[in-house]
Amino acid sequence: MFRGLARAAAQRHRVPWARGSGGRAGIPAHVVDLRSDTVTRPGPAMRRAMAEADVGDDDYGEDPTVRELQEKAAELLGVGQTLFVPTNTMANLISVMGHCRRHGSQLLLGQECHLHVYEQGGTAQVAGVHSHPLPDLPHGTLDLAELEKVLRRSQGSSYHPVCELICLENTHSSSGGRVLPLDYLGQVRLLARNYGVRVHLDGARLMNAAVALGVPPSSIVQYCDSVSLCFSKGLGAPVGALVGGPKDFIEEAWRLRKALGGGMRQAGVLAAAALVGLTDAEERLGQDHRNAQRFAKGLRELASPFCSVDPSTVETNMVMVRVAGLRPEELCRRLQAVSAEEEAQLGRGVRVLLFPWTEYSVRAVWHRDVSAQDTELALRKWELVLKQLGRP
Ligand SMILES: *Cc1c(COP(=O)(O)O)cnc(C)c1O
C-alpha cells in the first residue's frame, strides 16, 4: 500500500522537478526536497575527499581509506570490527545470515520495519530465514510480553521453528524517526540472553538516535550483537553502509559479503565520502533535528483543519503530518505546484516535494540539503496552500 502511494507520488514529482522548470515569472522555482534523507547530493568537501582518496584493492585488504573508515567506525560504535558494504540492505542481510546459521530458523522483528517491508524479503529468498513479524508500538518498540511469548514457544517445543535472532530498528523509520529508549534495549537484550538468541540493530539512522539522546553511538550498540549503519541517509554520502560486531562475526561477514557480490575494489573513493559524513555528523544531524522540530511547531501554529502534527513525537529528522479533508496525494501535488500568488507573496516559486506516507498522512524528512531558511520557506508555502484549501 505504502509502496503504491510512494510510486504514484514519485511519478508525479518527477516531471517538473527533473526539468527544474521555472515559475511563471521565469525565475527558477526553489526546490525544498523533503521526500527522504537519501536525496542529498555530495557537496564540494565530500567530492574533494573522494577525488583525493588514497586507494588500493580492498578485496586484498589494501585500501587505506576503507581501512581507516572501518577502524574509526569500530571505535565509534564500540565493536570489535566493522565491514564496509554497498548498502544498508546488504548490511542487514549479511547480519541475518551471520546470526541465523540454521536453514529455516526464525527471526523476530517489527511488522513495519525496513528489513521486513522494503528489502525484498531477502532474509527468506536468500538467507532461508523465516520471519515472525510482531506489531510495532507507536514509539517504534515491540511489546516485550509478546516478544517473550514467541521466544518461550520457540524454545519449549519441537513443533515451532527455532528462533535465533531479534532485529530492532533505531531510529524507527515507519513511526517517524522515533528513538528507542536505552532501558528498552537493555530489556530486549536480557530477554535475548535468557532465551539464547542474538540481537541485530538496523542502525541505518543510528547516528540520529545518538545525537537525539546526546550519547555516543557505542552506548546504544552495547545492547546488540551486531549493528548496521547507513552512510547515504543523513550522513550525506552517495553510497555505502557498514556492519559492525565482534571480530569473528565480521570475518564471517566478509565471506557473506563476497557471496552476495558486495566485495569492492578501490572502494576508498566511497569510504572517503563516508568519512566526511561521519566527521560533522553530530552538528549536521542536530541541525536537521532542530529544523524538523521548528517545522512541526510552525505547522501546528497554523492550526489548519487539514493538517495536524504533534511536535512531541518529533524526536529526530522526520515529521509525520496527519491529513484530513483531502487526499495526501492532493496535498503533495499542491505543495509542489507553483502559483502566481506565491510568486507575488514569497518573491519566487517554491516547490516542496513530499511523499504521501499512508492514506491519511504525509512524511517530511530533513537532511543536509534542507537549511533552516528552506524550512521557513516550506512553512510559508504550506501556509499558502492551506489558506487556499480553506476557501469555500
Ligand atoms: C534506508 C534504510 C535501509 C536500507 O538502506 P539502503 O542503503 O538504502 O539499502 C535499512 N534500514 C532502514 C531503517 C533504512 O531507513
Automatic annotation (TrEMBL):
InterPro entries: ArAA_b-elim_lyase/Thr_aldolase, Low_specificity_L-TA-like, PyrdxlP-dep_Trfase, PyrdxlP-dep_Trfase_major, PyrdxlP-dep_Trfase_small. Pfam families: Beta_elim_lyase (PF01212). The keyword Lyase applies. GO terms for molecular function: L-allo-threonine aldolase activity. SUPFAM superfamilies: PLP-dependent transferases (SSF53383). Coiled coil: none annotated. One of its GO terms (biological process) is L-threonine catabolic process. Gene3D superfamilies: Aspartate Aminotransferase, domain 1, Type I PLP-dependent aspartate aminotransferase-like (Major domain). Keywords: Lyase, Pyridoxal phosphate. The modification N6-(pyridoxal phosphate)lysine is found at residue 233. Belongs to the threonine aldolase family. This is Uncharacterized protein R102.4-like. It comes from Chrysochloris asiatica. The gene is LOC102839125.
